[in-house]
Structures are given as C-alpha cells and as structure tokens.
Write a structure and sequence with these properties.
- By secondary structure, the chain is an alpha+beta fold.
- The chain has 10 helices and 12 strands.
- It folds into 3 domains: 119 residues, 2-Layer Sandwich (Beta-Lactamase); 76 residues; 156 residues, Histidine kinase-like ATPase, C-terminal domain (Heat Shock Protein 90, 2-Layer Sandwich).
- The protein is elongated.
C-alpha cells in the first residue's frame, strides 16, 4: 500500500471532528495542515482540498504565538497551551479579521501531529444573544396578543359611538371632529391587525428556492427605487431547496431590503447606493440550543449610514424605528417569519455598512 494511501486511512479517524461547532485543524509542528474540519472550511470559505495546500500559520495576523506554541507542545514542554489571537477569514483578506481563542494539544504524544482548536470569541456571545432573542419573541408574542385584545374591544366601541354621535349632529364643524375620531380608530385597528397578522395566519408550506425569494425582492425594490440604487446578486447556486412558506420569507427579506433602501436616500441622490443579496451554505450551525448540520445564510447588506447606535439592541422590538414616520413593525415581522422557519436573524451595523444575516436550517 502506498504511503499516501496509509496517510489517508490514518486521517479518517479525525472525521468525527466534522461534528464539532468549533474550528479544528490537525497540523505538523511547522503549521502544515493535515486535516481541517467542516467548520474551518465554512469560516475560511474554501474547500478542504484547497486549505490543505496552505499552512495554518498563514491564517493568523500574527503567526509568532502559534508558531512558538506549536514548537513548545511538539517538544513536550507542555501538553496543552492556550492563547488569544486574530485570524484572517482568507489568507489574502487582511481586512476581514476574526478574534479567536486557540487551544493546541498533543495527539497521543505524537510529536509530529498536533490538534489546534479555534473558538470564536464572539461565538458564545452570539449564542447567548440568539437565545435571548428567541425568548424575547415569545414574550413579545404574548404581550401583543394581550394588548391587542385589550385595545380592540374599546376601540370598536369608540368608533361606533362616534358614528352614532355624527348622525345626531347637524353642524359640519362638529362632524369634522367625529370624522377625526373614526379615522384614528381605523388607523389603530389597522395597526393592531398588522401586529396580530403573523400569529393568526397559518404557514403555507412548500418547496422554497431562496434565490427565487431574492429575485422577487430585488424586482420589487428596483421597481420602487428605479434611480441611483443597485441591487447586486452574490448567490451560491448550489444551495438546495427547503420546506417553508415562500410568501412569509419574501415578506421578511422585503421588509429588511425596503428599510435599507429607505436608509440609502442620500446615497441614491449621489448615484452610489447599493444593496447586496448574498447566499451561502453554513455547516454545523447552532440555533438556540439546537444543532444543524447544514444551514442557509442570507445576507442583506447595504452601504447606508447604519442603524442608530441607541436602538441597535432593540431594532427587532415592536414599534422601535430609526426613521421618522416608521411603524417599527417591519423588522419585528421579519424576525417572526424567520423564527417560524426555525431560523434566526441578527444585524451588524456601522456607518457605511449594515448587514442583516438570516440563518435557516436546511434538510
């Protein structure tokens, strides 16, 4: 049997590392890669075969701590070592950094092979945030239901009383006041109906192609904002279809993209407003406390002014809006629709770049 065949058989024992939600590599003391797990492939955005042609040292902004630690563990000065470092998401992408906690460990006292585990420092924070968001949605749902029922009954009575009063009045000036009452009652009724809509309507489940969703949203946005705005596609066309409610997902993505387009008004005047619809596959994803082997990631990115800092932690709460005249319901509905697909949604924003990330499990 050839030497390469022996090595290949030997490395199959590392296949279980693909089940981990952290990035793991098996390396030689000089950093040469012998094995990378699925999570490291996902973060790097490269295939395992391509990654194996590189050195793990190439993926760190400062390679010295890793080089020194690999040498120390290989010499058996320590069996395990830990340190914090900054990784690149691609060897040439110096601007895309990922803070990680690195753990280097021996393999059965073999000096020529070491295990390097890299944990995203923000990963635990993100998981905690997702769990809080899931809990917040349940609280919000109950609050909306109770509040809506408390409002609807007296609201109907107010409207009916105004109509009866209008019938008894002969003065046009006085009936103008009753019309104000009726119009405002109707406006509040419409608001309550919008709040209750996602909880009333049953899902219409079928096969969903995420790119058909994106194309529908793209055409609607460009029809409403035909000048000064580009909506770019960046699709992974290998993504499979999944079971879901197509109309709900269109509405969720449209709400986010529409908010982005409205925030880009000044850049549209300058002619350089841009929204990017990006799809990717993600492996070994944890949503809440549940683990999924494969998930869809949909990014809606814009080059607008960013979400105001004072509301970034509350943008998915009902009636919270960063725009004058906004209802504050678009993102709340988007979050509800995504979570009805076992997914999650989050936002990273800074001036000049805002990304909403939707993650939905795939079969």
């Amino acid at each position: 049997m050839s030497r390469s065949r022996v090595a290949s058989l030997d490395l199959t024992r590392y296949d279980a590392l693909d089940l981990l939600a952290t990035m793991v590599a098996v390396v030689q003391p000089n950093g040469s890669l012998l094995f990378v797990n699925a999570m490291l492939e996902t973060v790097a955005g490269l295939s395992r075969r391509t990654l194996m042609r590189t050195s793990l040292l190439d993926w760190f902004v400062d390679e010295r701590p890793l080089r020194d630690t690999l040498a120390a563990v290989a010499r058996n000065e320590v069996s395990t070592a830990r340190f914090d470092a900054v990784m690149r998401r691609a060897p040439v992408a110096a601007h895309e950094h990922l803070p990680v906690h690195v753990i280097v460990t021996q393999i059965d006292h073999q000096a020529d092979r070491l295990v390097v585990e890299m944990l995203e420092i923000e990963q635990q924070t993100r998981q905690d945030r997702e769990e809080r968001a899931l809990g917040q949605v349940q609280v919000t749902k109950e609050l909306i239901r109770n509040l809506a029922h408390e409002i609807k009954n007296p609201l109907g009575g107010i409207r009916g009383a105004a109509q009866l009063l209008e019938m008894e009045l002969s003065s046009r000036e006085l009936t103008d006041y009753t019309q104000v009452i009726i119009r405002e009652a109707d406006r509040l009724q419409a608001l309550v109906d919008r709040l209750l809509a996602p909880h009333r309507r049953q899902q219409v489940v079928g096969d969903v192609n995420v790119h058909e969703v994106c194309e529908r949203v793209r055409s609607l946005i460009l029809a409403e904002f035909p000048r000064g705005l580009k909506v770019r596609r960046d699709y992974d066309t290998s993504l499979p279809e999944f079971r879901g409610d197509r109309e709900q997902l269109i509405q969720a993505v449209l709400n986010i993209a529409h908010n982005a387009a409205q925030a880009l008004a000044e850049r549209m005047d300058e002619g350089d407003a841009c929204i990017v619809l990006r799809t990717r596959a993600a492996r070994q994803v944890t949503i809440g406390k549940q683990r999924f082997k494969l998930a869809l990631e949909l990014h809606i990115e814009d080059n607008g002014p960013g979400v105001p800092e004072e509301i970034r932690d509350r943008i998915f709460f009902p009636l919270v809006s960063g725009r004058d005249g906004g209802s504050g319901l678009g993102l709340t509905l988007a979050q509800t629709f995504v979570q009805q697909h076992q997914g999650t949604i989050d936002c990273v924003s800074e001036p000049g770049r805002t990304i909403f990330r939707i993650v939905i499990p795939l079969p």
